[in-house]
Design a protein that fits this description.
By secondary structure, the protein is mainly alpha-helical. It is built from 18 helices and no strands.
Length: 484
């Protein structure tokens, strides 16, 4: 049972016993200014005991593993594009940005949300752990099925623009592949993340440092592997369209039952109603990033293999920062009010994110920013070793400089958005991470495009695609889709 503070009880001396018990059972107690300041001091003391190098060590191992996962995703994507499925139904590629975006929209949000529950001691016994796990599984299934369905609609529209007609078998393969991939990837990744969070809390490791990078490391590779495998399976039974209809129908029928369960689960009820806006907006932003990426690939060779790393590292880093900031706000204040340690002026946010001692996560921000250049340098050279190409000094310098700019912008934007959504009485764990990872995708693709263009302007003309046409080339809408 939640305890009501003595100060709050004294402010309402005429409250009867039944109303007090009702508030205790159904409402989180409000924290006044004095309590908030005291809790912030205790939180800062706790974080001061957590040495910066301990934080770094907890972050760097999952971060490096995540980077290797993103490099592997780039290599895998380059390989599966040669498969019969991708050769004959070009629009499958359109699904990739939206489905990979589920990592930020759902899995990283799940990691942040459950990490906050654990840090707030809301998951402290077997029953609460069971409720949290089952509730989050059900919620991510609802979200993944609906997002997968919407992503397949976008791919179908792309085929219509390219072919000026609809082909039923192609559309069914797109829909069933998208929904199945989204559902299975979310289920598998969600179970892994929740297991890691529960275990890390038992070993007194901050789950905010572990779960989000793991989600990033596994998300792209797992999703691409499931997409290519499931898609190929349904492609092989393309003439048995009743199978496609049955699978799609089963997923749609499952949604109302999952909604009923989530509505009665205290851990996910809020997200069930309030978590849709950022997910949908994030999918749209990621789709715009996909359009820009297609244009960039049309102009310059070698961009595609860098895209998962650039977008993934940025989303990984900002996800950790947002998760830890959200936890600190939950511990020290009330939603709907500015945290008293929030900057009073917007122009101070950039400074306070990294250097203000009243920000309990300022050291985390510095550690994450400091990790950017060494991490990207390592991943950059691994990619070039895999590609077996000569290094370009200009590309290295422009790449590292612009990617550092991307992460710096994301961390500052994160610090602003977390405080603003908290003031708007919204849960930052639900609202911020999908939007920030999508913005990271958009920024990453734009800056990667700019990087290659700057290298081209310095005289490295060999990176320019010799077949490049107009920037608004119709190559984004391939005309050689096979009718099956």
């Amino acid at each position: 049972m939640t305890k009501v503070s003595v100060i709050e009880l004294n402010e309402s001396p005429n409250r009867d016993a039944s109303s007090t018990l009702n508030i205790q059972a159904n409402q989180k107690p409000r924290i006044n200014r004095a309590e908030s300041e005291y809790k912030l001091v205790k939180l800062i003391e706790q974080h001061n005991q957590e040495k910066w190098y301990h934080t770094l060590l907890q972050i760097v191992v999952p971060f490096i593993i995540a980077g290797f996962g993103m490099v592997a995703a780039g290599v895998l994507l380059d390989e599966v594009q040669k498969w019969e499925l991708f050769e004959n139904i070009k629009e499958i590629i359109v699904l990739v940005p939206a489905l990979l975006g589920l990592k930020g929209n759902l899995e990283m949000t799940l990691a942040s949300r459950l990490s906050t529950n654990v840090n707030l001691k809301e998951v402290n016994d077997r029953q609460s752990a069971k409720d949290a796990i089952l509730g989050n599984i059900a919620l991510t299934q609802i979200q993944s099925i609906i997002v997968g369905l919407l992503a397949s609609f976008i791919a179908s529209i792309t085929e219509f623009v390219a072919e000026r007609t609809f082909y039923l078998k192609n559309i069914l393969i797109l829909i069933v592949t998208s929904i199945s991939t989204a559902s299975l990837a979310s289920l598998l990744l969600g179970l892994i993340i929740m297991f890691i969070i529960i275990i890390s809390s038992k070993f007194k490791i901050n789950p905010d440092n572990i779960a989000t990078p793991i989600a990033a490391s596994l998300g792209d590779v797992v999703t691409l592997a499931i997409l290519s495998s499931i898609g190929t399976l349904f492609y092989k039974v393309k003439d048995m369209i009743y199978i496609h209809f049955i699978v799609i129908g089963l997923f749609i029928i499952l949604i109302p039952f999952l909604v009923i369960y989530c509505n009665g689960n205290k851990f996910v009820k809020e997200t069930l109603y309030k978590g849709w806006t950022p997910v949908i907006i994030a999918m749209i932003i990621s789709s715009l990033a996909g359009v820009i990426l297609e244009i960039a690939i049309n102009f310059y060779t070698g961009i595609a293999i860098f895209q998962p790393v650039v977008n993934g590292v940025g989303g990984n880093i900002v996800g950790i920062f947002a998760s830890r900031l959200g936890t600190s706000l939950h511990k020290t204040g009330n939603k709907g009010k500015w945290a008293f340690w929030a900057p009073k002026k917007y122009y101070l946010y950039a400074y306070d994110a990294f250097f203000s001692f009243t920000n309990p996560e300022h050291k985390t921000g510095l550690v994450l920013l400091g990790l950017t250049l060494p991490g990207h340098t390592l991943f950059f050279f691994i990619i070039y070793l895999i590609k077996s190409q000569n290094l370009s000094t200009q590309l290295v310098l422009f790449y590292l400089g612009l990617i550092f700019t991307q992460v710096l912008i994301l961390l500052i934007l994160c610090y602003i958005m977390v405080h603003v959504f908290w003031r708007w009485n919204q849960n930052p764990d639900i609202m911020c991470i999908p939007l920030l990872t999508a913005i990271g995708d958009f920024l990453g693709v734009c800056l990667l495009f700019l990087c290659f263009h700057l290298v081209y302007l310095t005289g490295q003309i060999e990176i320019r695609n010799s077949t490049t046409g107009n920037i608004f080339s119709t190559s984004y809408f391939p005309a050689n889709t096979t009718v099956i």
